[in-house]
From TrEMBL:
Mg(2+) 3 binds at D22, D66, D202. This is Thiamine-monophosphate kinase. Belongs to the thiamine-monophosphate kinase family. Keywords: ATP-binding, Kinase, Magnesium, Metal-binding, Nucleotide-binding, Thiamine biosynthesis, Transferase. It comes from Candidatus Nitrosopelagicus brevis. Coiled coil: none annotated. The keyword Methyltransferase does not apply. Substrate binds at D45, E253, W308. The keyword Acetylation does not apply. The gene is thiL.
Length: 312
């Protein structure tokens, strides 16, 4: 029997009735509203030694990042938690601390939720918001520039350090782990960015995955000409003889924005990024065709969808 991956399962469930977006838009009392849901499970999403307050905060950040990619500000959330019978009062307080921190950080009102007993910690977050303007995954035009916020490779490096005991400097280890356990969502920037972008997605499933998703949604070829990373990630890759492409393209958990933009809007986007102290990488261009490819003049290859998927 063929083993299904996450995207195949989603395709079957969604059928023809649901859009291929992480945030769904619907009408309520003559107003457009947005909703998204995300799940975090202990055995697949939480490395050993993680602080529960970081994990609970991150569960909300994950959904907020989906809203950021659409340019929508979340207003309310509902949280459902499944907890093992052995969980202590202190651990529950740690989870609550992370939820409160995230809600305060993003100005979200927690409406309530549900609690259940299970074999491991599982967190389900539902976000709601009002829609004025938003950017879809579909909308990229031939000639558009492909951009990302932030540098990639740190979260994959963090997991290599934690799980595979890879070598790194103390500074790089601390930086990578901080970005993995305490990520930022580009919410305010994403909200302003929607005035200039033609398509957008968040990178939580990995850069290779979201580039392929945008390429498929837009039925266009994406040619990547620059790797969006920093010198210290390259040094980590060289020191450990590990693939830089794997670290950058296949890591996931970055919660950065990947978007397309018309060339004439680049100046405005860079000015907006500078004002918000966010780095922007122009990594490629949109062409007629299909698939995602890399070519920087020195090496060329097809970028396969090797990002994070459950059931893989």
């Amino acid at each position: 029997m063929k083993k299904l991956n996450e995207k195949e399962i989603i395709k079957i469930i969604n059928s023809k009735h649901v859009s291929s977006e992480d945030v769904e838009i619907f009408n309520l009392a003559n107003k457009q509203c947005a909703v998204c849901v995300d799940t975090l499970v202990e055995s697949t999403d939480i490395p050993k030694g993680s602080k529960l307050s970081d994990i609970s905060r991150k569960s909300i950040v994950s959904s907020v990042s989906d809203f950021a990619a659409k340019g929508i500000i979340p207003k309310f959330c509902i949280i459902s938690v499944t907890l093992p019978k052995t969980i202590s009062k202190k651990q529950v307080q740690e989870l609550s601390k992370g939820f409160s921190k995230a809600c305060k950080e993003f100005k979200i009102q927690l409406l309530g939720g549900d609690t259940n007993q299970g074999t491991e910690i599982s967190i389900h977050v539902v976000l709601f918001g009002n829609v004025k303007k938003y950017t879809k995954r579909k909308g990229a035009k031939i000639g558009d520039v492909i951009c990302t916020t932030g540098a990639f490779g740190y979260t994959a490096a963090a997991l290599d350090i934690i799980l595979k005991k890879k070598k790194s400097s103390k500074a790089f280890s601390a930086k990578s782990k901080n970005l993995f356990f305490r990520p930022k969502a580009r919410l305010e920037f994403g909200h302003k960015l929607t005035n200039y972008t033609s398509s957008s997605i968040d990178s939580s499933d990995g850069l290779s995955s979201c580039l392929n998703e945008l390429s498929n949604q837009n039925k266009k070829k994406f040619l990547i000409t620059k790797i969006p990373t920093n010198k210290d990630v390259i040094e980590f890759s060289n020191k450990n003889n590990t693939s830089l492409n794997r670290l950058v393209f296949d890591g996931g958990e970055e919660f950065e924005l990947v978007f397309t933009v018309m060339p004439e809007n680049l100046k405005k986007i860079h000015a907006l990024a500078k004002k918000n102290k966010i780095s922007i990488f122009e990594i490629g261009y949109v062409y007629k065709g299909k698939g995602v490819f890399f070519d920087d003049g020195n090496s060329s290859f097809k970028i396969e969808d090797n990002g994070w998927q459950h059931f893989r």
